[in-house]
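Exercise: predict the fold of this chain.
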Amino acid sequence: MKTGKKLVLRHLIVVAMLGLSGQTYAEELEQLAAMAQPNGSAQITWSEDDVSRFMEGEATAASNERHPEDIDIPAQTTVFTTIQPTAPTVTAPPIITSTTTTTLTPKAVVSGYSNQPSVNARAALVMDAETGEILYAKNSQSVLPIASITKLMTAVVTADARLNMDERITLQAADFSCAGCKSSSSTLRVGDSMNRAEALLFALMKSENPAAAALARTYPGGRIAFIAAMNAKAKALGMHSTRYVESTGLHPANVSSARDLAILVSSSYQYGLIRQFSTTPNYRFNLGQRVLSSNNTNALVRNGGWNINISKTGFINEAGRCVVMHSTVNNRPVAVILLGAGNTAARNEDATRLMTWVGQIPKNI
């Protein structure tokens, strides 16, 4: 039993080191890890204090997604973890349009760095996440469908509301479709039950649309209130080209610009829970009757070759292949936005090309 506990803690700490820029998360995991079960899984319960710390983030400063191109590379780290419910439902406060998070506005002028790479994507932007300096831009003001990049705002609204992360959520038929939405596949089923933390992890890591829909449905006031909160948050952050009509990204009327999404990525970085969940490479979800082994939709996260702190991918036909990331490259924190790449390989190549280029330019000129 002691050996099992040590192995579980080692897995958890490895994930924290790979997935987070914050330095205190490993300590949180050690405090949360409970006794190992015979099958090698750990039980994690979420107390109110735990959730509060996760939501505050301790910051230092992703279905259409499951295309074969997105899941062909096996994850290098597996987390054998089951999040267990322990607390009753807590009523959330009204819609939150402002928080203590800091908003970073991109600077208007693109710096004249030489040897700027070309990208396949319709729109792209790289922003210094400390200063707001635009290092690279291509059609950064163009308003485009953003597909499941939407789920990053879904996570922010969920985090801002400080809902009980142990509350059980049972998926309903309505979570699998919406008016005007594109069709999508899912490994989830009507009747699957999970707590809110697992639903958020499903939405961010695996880009499960029913999970994101259920997060909106179970928000105080329901979907209408949730979408209102998404748009209010976008306005508060200065995302003036952004509009949300639902929480999954399956509706092509969910639109934004690369500039606006750089703001969202910078803001999302301040939430420890979003950093951890969006960059978890692999997870085994225990749904009672079955266990779902799931990979992150971003191959750059799964491969572990980059210091990625925030990640979300997206795809519907209207949007093309999209990805947004917060990454630390050569000690420079950057927001990397790519919208409308032709395919997953092109999207990954664009991201790799941009981050490699960023690592070669001086931080101060």
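Check your answer against the key: The chain has eleven helices and 13 strands.
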